[in-house]
Each structure stands twice: as C-alpha cells, then as structure tokens.
Amino acid sequence: MKRPSSSHWANNFTQEECDIINKAFSIVEKNTSIDDHCSIISEILDHINADAETIAAAVLVTSRLYSDLPRSLIESNFDNGIIALTSESFSLIQEEAEWYAELVDDGKKPIAGAHHMMLLSMMKDTRTVFILLGLQMLKMRKLVHWEESQKQKAAIETQLIFAPLANRLGIGQLKWELEDYAFRFLHPDQYKKIAQALEEKRIDRERYMAEIVSVLQAKLSEAGIEADVYGRPKHIFSIWSKMQKKQLKFDELFDVRAVRIIAKDLGTCYSVLSIVHEMWQFLPGEYDDYIASPKANNYQSLHTAVLGPQDRTIEIQIRTKDMHSHAELGVAAHWRYKEGGKRDKGLETHLESVRDLLSDESPLSPSETISPKIYVLSPKGNVVALPRDATPLDFAYTVHSEVGNRCRGAMVNGKMVPLTTKLNSGETIEIITANNATPSRDWLIPHLGYIKSNRARAKVKHWFKREFRNEHIHAGKNALAKEMHESLNNSGLNHLAQLFNVNNIDDLYAAIGRGELGVHQVLNSYKKAQNIEREEAEEIEYKRPAQTKTQQRDIIIEGIDELMSQLARCCKPVPGDEIVGFITKGRGVTIHRTDCQNIDHLKSQYGERLIPVSWGDQRTGKYDVDIEVIAMDRSGLLRDVTSVISSVDVNVSGANTYSDRKTHQAKMRLTIEISEPEQLEKVLSRLMSLKDVLDVARIK
Question: Does pTM top 0.85 for this prediction?
C-alpha cells in the first residue's frame, strides 16, 4: 500500500496530528493486505479539509470494511475519540448498505431527504457524514472492477442518496464526481457519447477559451480590478441534465464553454459583472444572483451567459475566494484550523450546523425548533419521521389511521415490545394488527406513555368521537331540551346548527353531548341572533326612488341615493363577498353577505326590503373578519397564531380562546382587521401550515 508522504501531511497538520494519521496507516500496513483503498480515502478527505482524527478514522474504517482489520487493534492503539468515530462510521455504513440493498430488492426507491435525516439523527459525531461520503466516493472509483449488477445498485445508491447528500452539504468537489460516476454506470452509452463530443471539440474549445480568458483578464486589469480568470471544468452529468431539461443538442449548449472569475470582494463581483455585460451581449433569462439570494446549501455566486466572439455563448460565474471555497467544500470549507495544534473552539458548533443543513424542514414557529425528531424504518425500508420519545402507536398512526386503530402489538428489530416502548432512530418497526382490535381509552392518558405525538392523540379521539356518535347525540338532545323554555321547529333547529357552523342539528347535539359546546353557550348565542333578527325586521315606511347609483365609494346601493349604509355585525362582509342590502328603521341599509343566516330568515318575511348592492371601486378603511382556529392545545399556541397574523400586517382586534382538557384541543375565535381580501387568504393559509393547527376557517 502506497500511503501519502509524511511531508504531504506536514504541510497541513501539526506534528502531533501527523503522528495520528501515520499511526493509522502503520497499523493497517502491519495487519492487513489491503491495497491503495486507504490512501485514496485519506486523499479524498484531505481535499475537503478533514481534520487529522477524521482522516485516521476513515483509514481504519476502510481497512475494517475491505480487509477485516480487528476492532481490538483500534481500541488498544487509539484514544476514545477515534475509537468512537471509527465504530460509529463502520456501523452506519453497514446499516445503510443493508437498508439500501433490501429497498432495491423490493423494487423501491429511497427518498433522499428522509434518508439524509435518518442517517444524521443516528450520528453522535457529525464528522461521520464526511467519512460516509468519502467511502462512497472510494466505492465508485473502484466500481469498474465489480460485477454489472453491483455496479447498477451502487450507481443508483449514489444518484439517489450520496450525490444529493454532498449537494445538500454544498461540497461541489464530491457532488460533481459522484454524479458523473453514477451517470457513467447507469447510462454508459450517453456518457460515452458526450465524452467523445467533448474530446472532439477539445482543441478548438481550449483555443477559444484561452482567447476569452486573455481578453477578460486584460479588460479587468485595464479597469484596475484584480481577479483570477480561468476556464471552468466541465461535468458530463450536468451537460446531459441541461440537454434533457432544455431539449438541446450538444452543439446548442453553452455551459461547455464556461469561465469562472474569482474577485477579491463582494463589491468587485458586481463591478466585474458590469464589465462583462459591457463587453458582450448577455442572454435574458440566463442571469442568476445567488449572492443576494443564496441556494439552500448557502452556495453564492453570480451566474450569467453572454454571446461572445463568433456568436458563441459563454457561461460566466463570478464569486469571491471565500464563496468559491464554500462552493467546492461546503460546510467543510472552514473545517481545518491550526492554532498551535489545537482545534478551533468554534469547530464543534460549526459541525453541528450540518444537521440544520441536512434538514428538509423549515421551522414554522419558534416551538418547532425545540421539537427534535427521530427517523425509523418500516418493514419495507421506508423512512418515517417521528417526534423524539415516540412509541410504536405513534408510528402506527403515522403510517395510517386504520393501522393505529387495529394495533394489537409491535415488533422492534424483530422482537416483541410493549406499546409504550420509546423508539430510537434507525430501528425497524412492525405493527401487528387484528380486524377486531379497537383503540383503548388508556392510550389517551398522558402519564401511561402510550402516545407522544399530538396527531396520533387526535386520531384516537376522532375514533371515539365517531364510534359513540349516537350516544353523544342522545345526551346532547336531552341536555338542550331540559334548558330550553320553548320548542323549536325544524327551521329554528337548523338555524341553531348554522350559528355554530355545523352541518346539521345532529352534529350540534353530538358536540353538546361530547362537552365541546355548553348548553348555555348555545342558548345565549341563539337569543343574541334572535335579537339582531328582530332589530333588522322592524317596520318602516319608505318610497323607492328611480334606479340610481351613489357616487363611487365602498358600497354602491342600487335604487336608493344618499342613504346611509353599514356593514352587518352578524356576518361582517368584506370586499369580494357577494352582498345584499336590507333596509332598516333609522339606520339606513345594512349590508349582509348573501349566505348570511339572518338574511335566510328575513327573506321569506321581508323579501321586499332586500335591495341590490355591490362593492365600489374605493377602499376607505378596515374590515372586521371573524375566524376560528382549531388546534391541539400547547404552550405558546396563541403567541404563534398572533405572530403569524402580524407577519401579514394584519391586526388582531379581539380574541376568545377555549381549551378542552378532555380532547386536548383549543378553539380560538379571533377578530382581525383587513384592508383587502388577499390578506384574509394569506392569514388562513399561513395559519393552516402552523404546527398543531387542525383547521382554520372564516366564521359565517
């Protein structure tokens, strides 16, 4: 085995660090017959700025994987840090390989983002992810000697898991190489075709690019700008991807002629861009400012395409040295520090940021950031995200409501476990079901520990709610009948149901029977609605003048001129709603929504008082809107709800909240002030995406 020279390590590490790496190589050389695998993995990690411990651990892991280096030799020769890093990396690469092999055998495709998070959630030392990437790169470089079936599996694994993982970390060096290797083995004919086309045009392209670089360098020097200009490497997979995406032939591509300019600072980048656009005509639609708007992995650069000499298109990237370092190395760009041989104090914090970079979830509220997850596997190898300390029942209800409802037991990694067992990342969970099984009320008792997630708890409650509906209807009907001093006909009962935004009177009875609505709450609301109805229906005398319209304003009243109007308190219409006017005594015209419950009742008795109205072109003020939010109750819920509303520049003018201890649900009735309908849509949409919110609706 040919290891890198001692002088090579001395250029990058202290003597103490060099000794750690050389010790790893010496142990491998004395105890195995491995070839150049260890040298390759050390060079890969060295190129992405890995520290000495990571390189040493990678050498030892590689030797264990390819030549069965005894674990005892590692434990007797290295400190606990390297032992732990080696052990964790070895275990994870084996678990990943087994998981992927089962998935491919079943004809499934892994979901890259979910798999990233499952791997990462199992890591105690985030440097392990770089060792895994290095080992996959090593595998792909050696793949040419493998059997065809193994090549295909490894290439798909690289394409779906490891190349996206490198991209998520922003490590361009590894991403491009992994993608090219995967493409080479998955599509060998297309790979060769593009490679041959690049080679055939190579001399002409290199001559042309040399002239472009020379002209650019001279022009920048003339402007007093210091910058490095050079041709950018071409990656076959990216060329093929662009050909597919834009339906172009090879000769029509312009990113095979590419220039990169490294400027000294941020301001200079934009100065260079201005000079480039003055020299050549830029192509509309091909300019991207990733400095002002970085990519998800914090990649920053200016991208433009211009029509150069001989009418050939050229792609140009402009960035600073730090931006370029990050583009090539991502989170590893600032990994290796030398302060008298000691690791930089901020390195651990920096490495922990890897977890945030790999997360596909964007926190929606402050409470989200303190809700860590675990990632477990189904028997078919699918990754399932669960809250930390989740149980098999949480898993069952995440898979499907009926799986949870019919759960009789659970197996973790092939062994039967209690339903209260706390799950860990990487475990395989299998739920045992029975057709006659039903949820137990014990599952809803928090201190018994059956359920952790709010969603699972809500699904159990929903089952009981549905199962005992008839009993709840009977109880609610009796409770309401005892308190009412008058009997209601069908119209009155339906009106009562509409007041509480339920489908029918049985739903209202059921809500009362479950304790979600109080009898006195229902009766008080009904009396209030009756008072408003009587007030609206008071007799008046009036004459209809000729059909005219008022001047442009908020409301246009057809048929009556110069008459005061006001928005109804019961339905609170806003611009965009279909509206109708009702002539009242002494208060002019009250404007209702056409679907207002009171209008439905007034229409049959006072239909002649309804008059056509419409919204004017002007908006002169704010409009009150009542909305209802139903959510799983938790600390900070009201704060998060009001924060979301404020983010749309909407004011909350009133709020009433009710928490049900039995169902662990909170109901909020909020009055908000909007100036245009679009604000209401934004508020409802953003609230619906908030954690633990089950439903959001405007109150009719």
Answer: no
